[in-house]
Amino acid sequence: MSIATPRLSKPLPALASTLGLAALSLWAGLAQAAPNDLERVEISGRRPGEVAHTNVRATCPGVAESLAESLSRVQAREQREGVVTVSFRLSGNAISEVAPRGGPYEYRRDVRRAVHALSCHTEANDQLYVMQISFHNVDSQRDDGRQRIALMDR
Asked: What are the φ/ψ torsions at residue 84 (nearest 5 degrees)?
């Protein structure tokens, strides 16, 4: 005589769906409890009432030549044109918070390094400076295909 063993139904799929529904209802409850009147907050490197200095040539002697030397290799490799706006803070001769924006993304890391390597000096502490660096290719018929990097005066 053989004894039949009862088959257990598969509890795992039922348990998984129950847990999924519980998590979904918990998430929906949290979403409904979230406030709808949140204000938009914008963050920038400029402090309230602060004026960004644009006299980078006076503060960092030889800045145009230094940037051209530091960035010419990456510009020759990438050959992308555009304008990168760079902000940085200067305290004495210490450069910090270098933030490139806009322009070709491929240049941002190298721009950050080049700006950190600049020789700048100010008597003031924690001054915000802004400059624009233009990357453009020169017509090969006029200039043997050499690439150009220029510090733009504002």
From this structure: -105, 125
pTM of the model: 0.64
Output the six-digit token pair for 139: 């017509």
CA dihedral 101, 103, 106, 112 (to 10 degrees): -40
Instruction: Determine the Cα angle at 115 with ends 114 and 117, to 5°.
Output: 65
Q: Which two tokens stand for residue 87?
A: 């902000």
Instruction: In whole angstroms, give the CA distance from residue 153 to residue 56.
Output: 9
| Helices 63-78 & 108-116 angle (0-180, nearest 10) | 160
Strands (E), 19-117: 82-91, 94-101
Question: What's the pLDDT tens digit per position in 76-128?
Answer: 899 999 999 999 999 999 999 999 999 999 999 999 999 999 999 998 888 99
145's torsion region: left (phi>0), alpha (psi -120 to 50) or beta? Answer: left
